[in-house]
């Protein structure tokens, strides 16, 4: 009887194991970086790179500092496999990612015109397998707080149609409140104050002018007091911007016609409060004072019925 060589048996076993290992590696192989969030922030800029499992990415950079002329930029696209890492190219804009310990080294060329003139380059360290989950994380104080709409007691009529128009859009966050980023970019900031340990930002949402002719009259669909731990949204990371503020307190805006608009006055005084917002109607020969609002110490909206008694520092009054 012919016996097989032990060396031949070991050789066949080795080949079988190699094939199995190769199959496992092929199954785990991905042409894209590990999905998740990568951070390269420093003392001057917030830098955040988010990569999805299919290779799509978003890159956001925002300058730190006091609100004002702060720079920011953002880009997005889909990565391609490349030697030593990955790259992205669109027109003249080119981005390369090289593998590095704990993350990736990112370099951008000729992307300022499309993404913004900010320093994107840096070593982006892996932060976690979180891509779209962060905006949905509940804020302890925000989840049980719906938008508190305050109506004028003396007006039994239904809410103004303009409010219904803005509510027709789907809510951008899980709790129905707009995100901090949306408030910063889509709403017009009127005033910033502080009550207790909360920042109070008063904002109004402009009505989009769909006509090709510029409209000199400012029209708004909604106005709210934003209550948050901080309203310096431009200094926050992209993850924090995606969250909603703690609470919104909506006020009732005066009704306006097609050729009428609204103007807001701040630094107005009524009694002991110096944080009163006065709303004027524009479109005629002169401004017409319509209403005045403030937040009390319990962060509830209060309409001041004696509008003429409110003293504003504006030269118009």
UniProtKB/TrEMBL annotation:
Q: Tell me the segments the record calls region Disordered.
A: 64-83
Which PROSITE patterns does the UniProt entry name for this protein?
Answer: PROKAR_LIPOPROTEIN
Secretion signal, residue range per the UniProt entry = 1-26
Question: Which UniProt keywords are given for this protein, alphabetically ordered?
Answer: Signal
**Name by which UniProt lists this protein:** Uncharacterized protein
Source organism: Undibacterium pigrum
The taxonomic lineage of its organism, from the top, reads: Bacteria, Pseudomonadati, Pseudomonadota, Betaproteobacteria, Burkholderiales
């Amino acid at each position: 009887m012919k016996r097989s060589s032990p060396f031949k048996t070991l050789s066949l076993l080795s080949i079988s194991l190699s094939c199995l290992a190769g199959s496992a590696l092929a199954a785990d192989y991905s042409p894209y970086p590990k999905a998740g969030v990568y951070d390269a922030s420093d003392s001057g800029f917030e830098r955040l790179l988010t990569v999805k499992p299919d290779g799509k990415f978003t890159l956001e950079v925002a300058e730190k500092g006091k609100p004002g002329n702060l720079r920011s930029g953002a880009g997005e696209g889909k990565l391609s496999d490349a030697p030593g890492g990955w790259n992205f190219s669109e027109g003249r804009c080119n981005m390369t990612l090289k593998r590095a310990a704990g993350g990736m080294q990112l370099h951008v060329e000729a992307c300022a015109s499309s993404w913004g003139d900010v320093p994107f380059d840096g070593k982006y360290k892996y932060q976690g397998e979180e891509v779209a989950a962060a905006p949905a994380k509940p804020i302890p104080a925000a989840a049980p707080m719906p938008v508190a709409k305050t109506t004028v007691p003396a007006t039994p009529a239904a809410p103004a149609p303009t409010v219904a128009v803005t509510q027709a859009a789907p809510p951008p966050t899980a709790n129905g409140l707009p995100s901090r980023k949306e408030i910063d970019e889509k709403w017009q900031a009127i005033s910033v104050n502080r009550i207790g340990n909360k920042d109070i930002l008063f904002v109004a949402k402009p009505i989009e002018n769909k006509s090709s002719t510029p409209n000199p009259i400012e029209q708004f669909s909604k106005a709210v007091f934003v209550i948050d731990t901080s309203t310096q949204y431009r200094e926050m990371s992209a993850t924090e911007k995606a969250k909603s503020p703690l609470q919104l307190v909506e006020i009732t805006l005066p009704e306006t016609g097609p050729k009428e608009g609204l103007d807001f006055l701040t630094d107005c005084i009524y009694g002991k409060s110096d944080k009163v917002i006065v709303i004027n109607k524009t479109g005629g020969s002169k401004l017409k004072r319509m209403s005045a609002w403030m937040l009390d110490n319990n962060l509830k909206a209060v309409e001041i019925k004696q509008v003429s008694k409110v003293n504003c520092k504006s030269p118009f009054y």
